[in-house]
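It would be a great kindness if you could assist me with a short task in structural biology. Thank you for your consideration; the sequence and its tokens are set out here.
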Amino acid sequence: MAFSAATRQENIARLKAEHLDLLIIGGGITGAGVALQASAMGIKTGLIEMQDFSEGTSSRSTKLVHGGIRYLKTFDVEVVADTVKERAAIQHIAPHIPRPDPMLIPIYDEPGATFTMFSLKVAMDLYDRLADVTDPKYTNYTLSRDEVLQREPQLKAENLVGGGVYLDYISNDARLVIENIKQAQVDGGIMTSHVQATQLLHDEQGNLIGAQVKDLMTDEEFTVHARLVINTAGPWSDFVRQLDPDAKITPQMRPTKGVHLVVAADRLPVPQPTYFDTGDQDDRMVFVVPRANKTYFGTTDTDYTADFKHPVATREDVDYLLAIINNRYPDVHLTIDDIEASWAGLRPLIAANSSSDYNGGDSGKLSDQSFAAVIDVVNNYENKQATRSDVEQVLKNVDSALSEHKSNPSAVSRGSDLSVADDGLITLAGGKITDYRKMAAGAITLISHLLASRFDAHFDPIDSKDLAVSGGALDSTNVDAALATLAQQGQAKGLPAADALQLANLYGANVTHVFALIDELSAAPGLTLAETLGLRYALTEEMTLTPVDYLLRRTNHILFQRETLDTVKVGVVNEMARYLGWQPAEKQQRLDQLNQAIAESDLSLLKNNN
């Protein structure tokens, strides 16, 4: 497959010439998931994204496929059951991306604590049953206070009463998006970045028939015609809805900003992902996650109304997170100067839904009778005096006052909204990364119905739970062994073992295409052979158009390899300029863009004003 700058030009020509069944506006994880399923069904699908794929929100998450155990504080069983099922589905269709990594929850005896040791054990047992966790490597267990401190000696000992360990998954959000996009292109979709919708088009009867769009790399404007248009623009959803000047739109989005900070692992050593209350009695929890010789932590959760394209970490955000970390790890004394990288992103929350991925929602209360029933049946189950069906029956009858249990009839997952405007514009908004496949499946059901009823166009349904993303053709039950076997192909061609395995983990089954490039490439100036291979593959097969695309989203070099970035960036810019034929002015422009992105990640402005 070719998916390059040249492919982009071909795709733009196709968008101009062809009449689509479906135009998708927005190339984050939601749009990518819809594109994957629609293209696989043979629906003639085009997708436009005004930035790079995943640039707006879907590369800026906590980089976990999170199980949502916190919702079991109030036995919000439905959302946890859905979440862990969807997590399993993603791990099946994209096995090289989400990877199991058990999470530690230290428990403190503090006002407003999310869990006590007792409630945590009950929640973890329920979680394992909902997630069907049976492998002894991953089943939950509790730790005493001393065992927690043996594992993480820098944790605050005051008021620590113990902890628990349960299964969670680390992930690579931007890679998940691009692998969905690539597969959609393979299956016939027309996937195009840096193209912005500027106006919705209607026929004489007021029915939506496409969009006026702009190629942001050339400023050319053109029209795209489609039977149906779906708005998957995340935080920008309201902006897309407002592209119809005659429509009276009530805004539905209430984005919040999440910030994450990265430090060297030796400044904040943790053996595994760790998740705890902030200690500020603000009903939030914070993740601390080891990754690639670094440790990152977050997230904030604040309402956001500024520039959607460029959310940044403020001094207030940084101070908030540093205060929490320095409280929970009192001997580390982190300062802003320890921060090597950062990222800030927006969560596409529905205004009527106060729940974010990790922090929130109206937690409500559980009636005393329901609480007692759940505790009794779980204890009986543990003592082999109740069956699994007994547990399930009690959970079905839980009388929760959670506001979000009164589900939105148009939602396809918790916190999402799927609606059709009077002119026919479909909007799929809200939700979270873990739900993306389920949200897309709900949208595809609606799209199939509309195509059939309005246009007599019929398409056979698919089971998207078995629809692998690009690179996902691996044994999902034995991923590590499969990737190790693939890495041996790179070693056989002369790559160091560590480099070969790193590439296999990044590209999954597609790494064979990367290794094939060894026969025609040598290391570019300033880059290792492995770096050269990855860059060339990104240019030819992942529509990488700028150095920031590559160093931030196709790889996480800017975030997790800051110590080599200043050297590598020179080799990357030079090789991209040579391969893409940039003139000196464009090369300098791309380098300036990269330096700006690095400075934002470095928090250079905040540090200089420190």
